[in-house]
Prior knowledge:
By secondary structure, the chain is mainly alpha-helical. It has a domain at 1-43. The protein is 46% helix and 0% strand. The longest helix is centred in the middle third of the chain and has 31 residues, at 10-40.
Amino acid sequence: MELELRGLSHAEFEMIKAYLDRSERETRLSVLECLRHEEVAAPSAKIIWLKDKVPARDAVKVRSLHFK
């Protein structure tokens, strides 16, 4: 980003520069904190695809039952 500042005193320019530097540091720290939190956080759910799940040995398929 570019910003053209004309007619500012040296003190005003330094104050703006310090504000922008501080804002940049805070943004970096915030991003690092978010990344650190993502690394530490354990997955909250486990996905089990029913099509991949192996049926139990004693499971009886409903289609195979015959009633008289």
